[in-house]
Amino acid sequence: MKFNKKQLVILLVAVLLLGFAGGYFGVTLAGGNQSTPEGMLTNNQLSSEKEDMQSPKMEKISQAYNLINEHFIEDVEDQALIEGAIQGMLATLEDPYSSYMNVEAMEEFDEQIESSFEGIGAEVSMVNGNVTIVAPIKDSPAEKVGLRPNDQVLEVDGESLEGLDLNEAVNQIRGEKGSEVVLTILRSGASDPFEVTLVRDEIPVETVYSELHEENGHKTGIIEITNFSERTADEFNEQLEQLENDGMDALVIDVRGNPGGLLNSVEDILENFIPKDIPYIQIEDRDGNKEEYYTNLDNKKEYPINVVIDEGSASASEILAVSMKEIGYDIVGTESFGKGSVQQAVPLGDGSTIKLTFYKWLSPKGNWINEVGVEPTVEVEQPDYYYTNPVQVEDILKLDDTGDILENIQVMLKGLGYDPGRTDGYFSKETKDAVENFQKDNDLKQTGEIDEETAGMIETKVVENIREGKDDIQLEKAIETLYE
């Protein structure tokens, strides 16, 4: 069955916002007179499932509830038992995207969908039982301290997150603007965790940034989308029109670190690029039935376009990327996050909700990218120093010292333009010279040794470079590819 874009509204977020806007990919009809897509949960089905609760299969749950309620040595609230049972059933699914949201969580979610929010500004998911950063939000506290995709959050203010579900972990991390939180982070490739201190803030609501890049006689439009919210499509279309009026020759769409958002937002953007003769997305139910969704566009743009992605690009970002890829546009960067499932939110009548995986979303050609990601057509990684770990120096590092921390600092120094001579973790004479030069340029005492102050300044300069887009090899390659 075919549907056009106006017949479906999907809320698509790969992960929970540490601010938070919820981990949610719901499917609802845009109008009350439309038929229910095959596989959609209807009111009649809900009534039928309520009747199933009275079956003999449910007697064990009732017995357990009564046993605890009547005989457990301490008083237990009925609501806590009920919510615990729901969370237990969902946990057995081993699906990071199916979860229970209580009344308070849903109220926060509803508020944050429509407005700005407060927190650290990072999106997280549960990966192999670990709370994992998918992407920090642009200009957020999480980005400013250098949190990155795939960082695992082990502890919050010294309290372990082990055994908590994603919602419970999120509750530990969230907080009001101005409040401080200490996260213990384990970064991929590092042997030891490290701590970062963040001051929670109001997370910026801007989602689209654009510029006209002029080089070698070419005018290249660059539009960065940080997430897909209610105003994103309007902002994108306004800025795209401005770039076209300014005479751009080609376009780069940058969705690196973009965790997803509203599907109706990304589909409104795809209305500019995906012709109506190919679906921009397919939805498949548990029985393998597929529905295709189309734009109303007659023809592709006349100018060249590509999309830049990385491991922090998820959900709606991947829909955009794979749709563009499968109609012939280049995708530049590294493999994306890999979320291809669809969750429907089912209200439970008291303000709480179960978010359950109901469907798969497929690419225009029917490919499923779940746990695989979108593979770029032009694979490019950032410089090595983009992937270094935060530095925590306890003992002063000096000539002839060795170790992983020193290796990490050597990679940082090299990326900042101070050649350490080697990057294998041995403190050589060349490394000492590089440290002295760095200290001189940054008004530090020129000892040639790495103390806490010097290490902190090196890390600060690395974070500044990354945030300012210096040495952005992926973007440079994306622009180059447009004119080949």
Largest sheet: 7 strands, antiparallel
CATH class of the largest domain: Alpha Beta
Measured between the Cα atoms of the first and last residue, the distance is 39 Å
Secondary-structure class: alpha+beta
The overall number of domains is 4
Tell how many strands the DSSP assignment holds: 24
Strand content: 15-25%
CATH superfamily of the largest domain: 2-enoyl-CoA Hydratase, Chain A, domain 1
Low-confidence stretches: 1-48
Overall morphology: flat
Number of helices: 13
State Rg.
25 Å
Average pLDDT number: 85
Percent helix, as a range, is: 25-40%
CATH level-two architecture of the largest domain: Alpha-Beta Complex
Could you name the CATH topology of the largest domain?
2-enoyl-CoA Hydratase, Chain A, domain 1
Which features does this protein show?
six-stranded mixed β-sheet, 484 residues, flat, disordered N terminus, seven-stranded antiparallel β-sheet, 4 domains, 2-enoyl-CoA Hydratase, Chain A, domain 1, alpha+beta, Pdz3 Domain
Describe this structure in words.
- This protein is of the alpha+beta class.
- It folds into four domains: 2-105, no CATH class; 116-203, PDZ domain (Pdz3 Domain, Roll), CATH 2.30.42.10; 208-342 and 365-383, Alpha-Beta Complex (2-enoyl-CoA Hydratase, Chain A, domain 1); 386-467, PGBD-like superfamily/PGBD (Muramoyl-pentapeptide Carboxypeptidase, domain 1), CATH 1.10.101.
- It is 30% helix and 24% strand.
- The chain has 13 helices and 24 strands.
- The protein has helices at 43-52, 59-71, 78-91, 103-114, 141-144, 166-173, 232-245, 263-270, 316-325, 404-415, 429-441, 452-467, 473-482, and strands at 2-4, 9-13, 16-17, 25-28, 99-101, 117-119, 122-127, 130-136, 152-156, 159-160, 180-186, 194-199, 201-203, 208-215, 218-225, 250-254, 260-262, 281-284, 290-294, 305-309, 330-333, 341-347, 353-362, 378-379.
- The strands form five sheets. Strands 3, 7, 8, 9, 10, 11 and 12 form a seven-stranded antiparallel beta sheet that branches.
- Helix 10 (404-415) packs across helix 12.
- The radius of gyration is 25 Å and the shape is flat.
- Residues 1-48 have low confidence and may be disordered.
